[in-house]
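Q: Predict the bound structure with zinc ion.
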Amino acid sequence: MGSAFADIMELAASCRFRDCNHEREPGCAVRGAMEMGTLDAKRLKSWRSISAEMEREAKKAEFRLNHLQRNEGKEKRKEAMTREIDNY
Ligand SMILES: [Zn+2]
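A: Predicted complex:
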């Protein structure tokens, strides 16, 4: 994500709610800035779509990583089994 959204990211980080959607939560820092007019609604909208996309990508990457680790574990077990067989 570019620094074009640095201010929104900062607001989101300073939001007192964890897992805040920054939409309807009363007291949300991002929403507050928008209501005060310091944050442009259009920019907030594009930031939301970008961060949603990033989250999807992050989830995909996490899934791939888990998958890789599982496969690696399988390989190690196979290796250990062959070693045991070799000992006989
Ligand atoms: Zn928020």
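A: The first helix runs from residue 6 to 14.
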